[in-house]
Each structure stands twice: as structure tokens, then as C-alpha cells.
Amino acid sequence: MNLTLGFMVWVIISSLLPFIKEDIIIPANQLALVTALPVVLGSILRIPIGYYANQFGARIIFLISFIALLFPVYFISVADSYTDLLIGGLFLGIGGAVFSVGVTSLPKYYPKDRHGFINGIYGAGNLGTALSAFGAPFFAAKLGWSTTIQLYLVILAVFILANFFFGDKHEVKVKTPLVKQIKAVYKNEKLWLLCLFYFITFGSFVAFTIYLPNFLVANFGLEKVDAGMRTAGFIVLATGMRTVGGWLADRFNPLVLLMFVFGGFTFSAALLSFAPSIAWYTFGCLTIAFCAGTGNGVIFKLVPMYFQQQAGIVNGIVSAMGGLGGFFPPLLLTFLFGLTGHYAIGFMALSQVALASLILIIWMYYQDKVGFANQVIKNTVEGIMITDKRGKIISVNQAFTQITGYLEQDVLGKNPSVLKSGKQAPSFYQDLWKSIDQKGFWQGEIWNKRKDGQLYLEWLTISAIKNDAGDIVQYAGMFSDISDHRMNQFI
């Protein structure tokens, strides 16, 4: 509910812009700036708010945020100039910034296998934008836009009291310094990829939310209340799919889900670039709502998966980039419309960025599979040694070091003969390689020598690794020390 209120306040101006511009003169080329400006502070503040939510708990941060919102809301309700709207709108961004509070605090209360669903339910607070998009024009038509905005002051006061009396005073606090958390994550490419993905998914949600009311009136000649209802429909679908996306991410591979999300983005944005009729435009927008909502839920399943210890600061950074994703598109669309007289290039740009993101997600998917395989190799209890096809060692794992005494730097580039004990006759090795050539592997007992000169008996499997053309590219040896086992047989 706190997020719902924050988002309700965040989009006051865009929801009521068709009414406000009847009383306040706003230059036509500045309409997008008025609606987009609240996104700026709402994006930037998400980083410190995510961090301080860990430091002080959700109760304190929500209290401070809602008290701070009282001032810009009242200021806008009595605004009589374009400048007043810009100043007040900037500080409305606090309402959007509170998103970082819940995604940081809620996972503390639930097991990891439910984080996607829980963050999805919290993210359903996006519904606050729909409540404002639909409800604010309805009340403004009866009471006037100024009085309608002042009603938000009453709601804010109720939530301030509710958080003060009922907020959790005993939430677990995380005291890791901000600079230390940033240093731990800023070089991780996954952070910036998640930022890009959320820039598109949440950015599209915000951009369409703040742009649609005025766009539908100006471009299709719809009534203001009708435009508000259509915008509310977009928001409701995106919000509902956020919860579904989180739930799906708990059950299926999140990266595979994102492939479908950005495939849908690519198609629907390309459709909108052809300036279709209102029916096809509605279909394209609703497809974007479906994909944006699903993607938003999936991405915040990935954050705690990749960044367990720095979830607060990473949630802040990723959500900040998502907010900025809602700031730039309306300005870009307005600029391109001024140059070309239509919005086709802007929507096509969204399509191409989504396509690039799809390619990056496919790359992440296969990188994760390789990374998982490397972790298995690194942590298995059997010693593993990999050579190139010429027999030069290119990789060993930790178990190799524990068994043989050789560090990785001791053996890289050398031949496995460094381990040779001298106990096997040359014919033994001839038969070994003959088996590998004919069968693709050899398995059996072999005496080898540790770094300190001690002999040991190992059970060894050597496999030839081939490429798609059937050519051998590497050899992999997996072995375990069976000296003690053999000695026990004789006792």
C-alpha cells in the first residue's frame, strides 16, 4: 500500500495535465518535460533510499518520504505558472523513489525461493499510477484539478500515521558502508545488464503511463476521461503481470522468460512505429504492458540471485536506471516528432534496443551455463586436469592441487608427465592412448608422483573432447587418490 500511494503521488501532474493546461500556459514543446521531470528525482533518489532502507528499516524511510511529499503536493495544488509545475514536479519524484524501500526490505522476511513472487506482489503497487490516471481526472471534472490534488494531502497524512503506529520497528538492519557496497558491485557486468533491461521494461511502463493521457487526446482526439481510462487499463495489465512475472521467475529460468519478454517488446514497438489505427495502437500498447510488467517482476528475482550481500544498493541502482528509462523516451519522442512530424523513429528505436537486449540475454544464458559448469569443476572432490590437443595443461581445479601438491601456476603449459611415477612401462601408455583413439576414453588405475616425490595410486579417467566437426580439441582427466583404499584391502 505504501508503494501504491507513492506512485499515485508520482504521476499527479501527468494524470491531470489535460486539465492543468487549461489554466496554466505550457509551451507545446515543453509538455513532455513537465510530465517527465518527476521521474528524475524519483530515479536518482532510489539509490540512497535503497541503501538507507537497509540501514534504518522501511518504517523510517516511508515516514520521512511521505512527510517530505506533503510540501510539493501542496505547492502544485496552488501553482499558477509553468515554473511552479517544474519545481513541484521535480520533488514529486520522492513518490517514485520509495520503490527501493520494499524491494530491499521485503526479502528479509521470506525464503529465497519466494523472492520473485514477493517482489512481484510489492511491485503491484504500480497500480497507484492507474488509480491516479483513472481517478484524478474523474474528480478533477467535478471538483477542479487544484482541489483534487489537495485530496492527496489527506491520504498522505493517513499513511504517515499508519507507518508511525504500525510499521515494523524491529526489522533486521544491514550496516555495510555505502562505498564498500558500491565497490563490491560496480565492476560486475551483470549489474549493468540488469540496469539496461530494467531501463527498458520499467522505463517503458513509466514513459507510457505519463505520456499516454495527453498523447491519446492530442493524437486520436479522445475525451480526457476516456484517455485516462485507457491509460489505467495499460497500467493495470502491466501491474498484474509484474506479480505473474515474479511468480514465474520462482519456477522457471528467469533468463529464458526475459527472452520472451524482449521478443515481445521488439515486435510490439515495431508495430507502433507504423503509426497504426487506434485499434492496432491499443494492441501494441497492451503487448508492451504485458511484456513490461512480466519483465519487471522477473528482473527483481535476478537481483538477489546475483547480489545476495549487496541487494540494497543494487536494487537502488537498477531501479534508478528503470526510472531514468521513463524520463528520456517522452523527451525523445517529442523531439523526434518536432523534426519529422510523427513518432515512428522513436518507437522503432525502442524496438531495436529491445532486440539488442534479447541478444544480450541469450549471451547471459549461455554464460551462466558455462559458469555453472566451471563451478562444478572447481568444487568437485575429484582432481581435474584439462590439456589442449598437444598435451599442454591449460586448467586444473582445487582438488588437483590437494591431491598432487602442485599449484595451478606450477603446471600450466607443462605436460602431464610431470606427474609420472616411472612405475608403468612404456607399453602401458601406448595402450592408454590406443584406447583413447579408438574409444574416446581410457579408465583405470595408475601410479603417479606428488610434488614432494611421494608416490600414490589414483583411479583415472581420460576423455577426448571433440568439437562439432568431430575433431579432438582437448583432453580431460578426472582422478581420485585410492592409495588408502588399496592399503585397507591388504590389512
TrEMBL record:
**Keyword Chaperone carried by entry:** no
Task: Give the membrane topology, semicolon-separated if more than one.
Answer: Multi-pass membrane protein
Query: In this protein, which residues make up the domain named Major facilitator superfamily (MFS) profile?
Result: 1-369
Provide the PAC domain boundaries.
442-491
Gene3D superfamilies given for it? MFS general substrate transporter like domains (1.20.1250.20), PAS domain (3.30.450.20)
Recorded GO MF terms: nitrate transmembrane transporter activity
Query: Which Gene Ontology cellular-component terms appear in the entry?
Result: plasma membrane
Residues annotated as domain PAS:
375-415
Q: Name one Pfam family in it.
A: MFS_1
* Compartments, record wording: Cell membrane
Annotated transmembrane regions:
28-48, 60-79, 85-106, 118-141, 147-166, 191-211, 231-248, 255-272, 278-300, 312-337, 343-366
Keywords from the UniProt entry: Membrane, Nitrate assimilation, Transmembrane, Transmembrane helix, Transport
Q: What is its main location?
A: membrane
A GO biological process of this protein is:
nitrate assimilation
Q: Belongs to which family? A: Belongs to the major facilitator superfamily. Nitrate/nitrite porter (TC 2.A.1.8) family.
Question: What is the designated name of this protein?
Answer: MFS transporter
